[in-house]
Every structure is written in C-alpha cells, then in structure tokens.
Automatic annotation (TrEMBL):
Residues 87-96 have a biased composition (Acidic residues). The lineage of its organism: Bacteria, Pseudomonadati, Pseudomonadota, Gammaproteobacteria, Cellvibrionales. It holds the Pfam family YebG. This is YebG protein. Residues 78-106 are annotated as: Disordered. It comes from Microbulbifer marinus.
Length: 106
C-alpha cells in the first residue's frame, strides 16, 4: 500500500496534493471571508448567503479586479472558467479510496 500525502483546507475541506495549491486556496478563502465581512458591514439588508457568494466571486477574480482598477474595466465582463473553483469541486466530489480521514485517540 502506497502512502499519498494530501493537504486539507480547514475552511472548506478541500484537499490538494501539494502544499502550494492548498495555501493559495486558503488565502483565497481568507480574502473571500474578509470581503464578505466588509460587504455585510456596509450594505444593509444583504443576506449572509449573498454576501458570501459575492465575497467568493471577488476573491476568485482578484487578479481581474486589480487589472480593472488599473484601467482595464472591460476585463470583468469576460467569462472565465475559475481554476480554483474547478479544483475545489473536483477535490470535494472525488471519493478517493487512497485518502483516509484521521481519527484522534484511536
């Protein structure tokens, strides 16, 4: 039996096969949480779910937002497949029998 190292994100349970991708995903989720908090503090009446969806969208498109702020606003109108979203969905949906959850005090 082979041992496969995986990194699991605490925030959403997404699993990655390398530390760099896991840390990048975690930073994106932290940014999304902070954006959500900002939105909820400044926009009255927004639902928690809508705030979270907006925060996640903006965090995933952070590079495009930076370009838009530097004079290319049209970039936000382009549809792009989100790499992080696809990886997260794949990681969460896969039933990999090589990965076993850790159990404390066994």
């Amino acid at each position: 039996m082979a041992v496969v190292a995986v990194w699991k994100c605490d925030r959403d349970g997404a699993m990655f096969d390398n530390k760099k991708d896991a840390e990048e995903h975690d930073k994106m989720l932290e940014l999304a949480a902070n954006i959500t908090s900002l939105i909820e503090r400044h926009i009255d009446g927004i639902s928690e779910q809508a705030g979270e969806e907006i925060g996640l969208l903006l965090a995933k498109r952070r590079e495009d937002l930076a370009k838009a702020c530097k004079g290319k606003p049209e970039i936000l109108l382009e549809e792009k497949e989100e790499k992080a979203e696809t990886e997260t969905e794949t990681a969460q949906d896969s039933d990999d029998d090589r990965v076993t959850p850790f159990v404390a005090n066994q």
